[in-house]
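Regression test attached.
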Amino acid sequence: MHREERAVLERYLKERGLKMTAARETVLEAFLGLETHVTVDDILEAARALDPGIGQATVFRTMKLFADAGLAREACRDDGGRQYEHAWRHAHHDHLTCVDCGKVVEFVDPAIEKAQEAVYRRYGFTSSGHRLELFGRCPDCSKKRSR
Amino acid sequence: MHREERAVLERYLKERGLKMTAARETVLEAFLGLETHVTVDDILEAARALDPGIGQATVFRTMKLFADAGLAREACRDDGGRQYEHAWRHAHHDHLTCVDCGKVVEFVDPAIEKAQEAVYRRYGFTSSGHRLELFGRCPDCSKKRSR
DNA sequence: TCCTTATTGATAATGATTATCATAATCATG
DNA sequence: CATGATTATGATAATCATTATCAATAAGGA
C-alpha cells in the first residue's frame, strides 16, 4: 500500500543518512489513510490503531519529517494545533472556509495564481509557495442569516 | 491622542454593557504606538512602560477584545505566538515574506482581490475577509543563494 | 555479526494561552 | 455623589501544544 509515497520517503531518508523505521512506516500509513486536514492527535490515534506502542513525540517528529520530505503540508490554525494535509500528488489548492459552520471548500483559481506571480515579479522575489484562506458564509449559512 | 480609535472602542463597549477602564486605555495607547506586526509580549512591554502595573493576562484579554472591536487584526504564525496588526483605518493588505531573512512586504493587488470575489461568487459564499501570505526570497537573499 | 549512529518512547520542560478567584474599579441609577 | 450590581483586574494556577532530554533500542553499512 502507498508504494509511491514510501519510495519518496526512502529516497529522502537515504539522501541524508537517516533510517527507515517501523514507526515511520506506521505513521505514514496512518497519515495517508486519513482524510486531509488532520491534527497530530488524529494521526496519533490512527497510528496507534496500527501499533499501540507509538509515542506522541514520535508523531510530532515524524510529521515534521514528512513535511520536509514533501509528503505533507502543514498549516497553523488560529485556534487549536497545527493541521496537516497530504502533499504528495495532491495538487496545490487554496481554502474557502465558512465562518459559521466550518465547511471547507478546496479550490484552485488560475487568475489568482497568475496575479500572485505578478506580485512576486513586481517586488523581485523568488516564489516558494503561498497560503490563501478565504473566509465567508456558505450558501446555507448565508440564507439562515438573512432570514 | 488616538481619539478616533478611542471612540470606536467606547462605542463597542457601550453597545454590550462593558466598561472603559484605565487598563484598556493603556493597552490601546501602547498598541497604537507600536508598529504593526507585534506580539502580545511586545504590547505588554509597551503597556508597562506607560503603567508598570499591567498584567499579562489583561493584555491577552484586551487584544482579543480589540480584534473583535475592529481595532486589531490577529494572525497566527507558524512558529511563535499570535501577532497583531492595526486594523482601524488601516486598509486591508496582504503579505509577502522572505523565507530567509524574514523581511515582510505589505501589498494590495487589485487583480487578486477581484479574482477572489469571483471565487466567492462561484461557490455562492458571502465574503467576510481573507488571509493571503506569499512566501519567497527577497532580491538580496535570492542573489546570495544563486552565488 | 558488529559497531556506529539514528531513533524511539517516556517523561520532563517549555511557551503560549486560558481559567480561577478574591479584590478593585466602573457606571447607571437613585 | 453615594450605592450597588456587575464587570475588570492582576496574580497565580491550569491547560494545551510542542520540544528537549535521555537511557534503551533498532537500523544498516562494513
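Expected vs. actual: identical. The interface with chain B takes residues 74-78, 96, 98-99, 105, 107, 109, 111-112, 114-116, 118-120, 122-139, 142, 145 of chain A (CB under 8 Å).
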